[in-house]
Write a structure and sequence with these properties.
The chain is α+β, with helices and mostly antiparallel strands. The chain has 5 helices and 8 strands, in the order H-E-E-E-H-E-H-E-H-E-E-E-H. The strands form 3 sheets. Strands 1-8-2 form a 3-stranded antiparallel beta sheet. The protein has a 3-stranded antiparallel beta sheet with strand order 6-3-7. The protein is elongated, with a radius of gyration of 18 Å.
Length: 178
């Protein structure tokens, strides 16, 4: 968002901003639910209705405080008076995955980090945390001066179609496996 406000970019892929930004519009593309990631045989995966209190009992592998998902998760814990047990803090989501895979802790992240198509996910289990957190809205922040360009809207509509297509394929594949 800072790059948009500074005039260094015309669009950015972002989570929904919490406040209105002058001269910037948000175009919703898809919702990204929160997941808990853990090694496949980890006991935390046994409770699909897991609570924040239970999650807080385990060492966590988290993205840095620059991450929206991390700040959101941490705020939820603070509101309940719970303390984080930060095992490791990473700047990159693939590192979070790698350390969870080898059993260094568990992670709370948006579902985009867990792709059932990836071969490495045979080492990971995921729990949907929709009963705790609403999904994060992901979309494009667009500088208002570029909203009127047809090429901008063609690009946005293409992204929307891709996001909807990927979600539909994922939902269909999930039903086919059940």
């Amino acid at each position: 968002m800072e790059a948009l406000e500074a005039g260094e970019a015309t669009m950015a892929l972002v989570h929904a901003p919490g406040d209105d930004r002058k001269g910037i519009s948000f175009v919703h593309l898809f919702d990204a639910p929160f997941n808990l990631l853990a090694p496949i045989a980890h006991p935390i995966l046994d409770d699909p209705a897991i609570s924040l209190e239970t999650i807080a009992e385990w060492p966590l592998i988290l993205l840095s405080l620059d991450s929206y998902a991390r700040r959101y998760f941490e705020n939820a814990l603070n509101e309940k008076g719970l303390r984080l047990q930060v095992g490791l803090e990473m700047d990159h989501s693939e590192l979070v995955r790698s350390y969870v895979e080898i059993g260094m802790g568990v992670a709370v992240t948006i579902a985009m980090l867990f792709d059932s198509e990836q071969e490495s996910n045979i080492k990971l289990g995921a729990l949907d945390l929709s009963h705790i957190f609403p999904p994060v809205q992901i979309g494009l922040a667009v500088k208002a001066s570029h909203e009127r360009f047809a090429a901008s809207w063609e690009f946005i509509e293409g992204l929307k179609a891709a996001a909807i297509g990927a979600r539909m394929r994922s939902d269909w594949e999930g039903r086919a496996e059940s």
